[in-house]
Amino acid sequence: MQLTIRMPDEYTEKLNSLSKKMGLKRSDIIRLALKQFFEEDHRENHRPPFQKVSYLLGTVESGTKDLGKRHRDYLIQKIRRGS
Asked: In the predicted model, what is the mean pLDDT of residues 51-65?
């Protein structure tokens, strides 16, 4: 099957460059990209942002007990010190 698409000039330039660099036809690169896209698990991408980073939350300690309550004060102090 033949497919015609419209894409930005920037994509065309990148595709042409990649084609020369890899020694492949542009259509081969597009087929590879589509294959990779189809094989990805897209359910993962539909998670809310919180769920995507939830494993990171609560894993770092600043050593400052009231940072959550006085974060603005600490930020202002830091800006005034210039560091």
From this structure: 75
pLDDT the model gives residue 53: 81
pLDDT for residue 27: 95
For 1-43, the fitting CATH number among 3.40.30.10, 3.40.50.300, 1.10.1220.10, 1.10.472.20 is: 1.10.1220.10
- Residue 56 amino acid letter: L
Calpha distance 73→42 (Å, rounded): 41
pTM (predicted TM-score): 0.49
**Residues 42, 53: contact at Cβ < 8 Å?**
no
Instruction: Return the percent helix, strand and coil in the chain, to nearest 5.
Output: 65, 0, 35
9-22 helix and 26-39 helix, angle to the nearest 10 degrees: 100
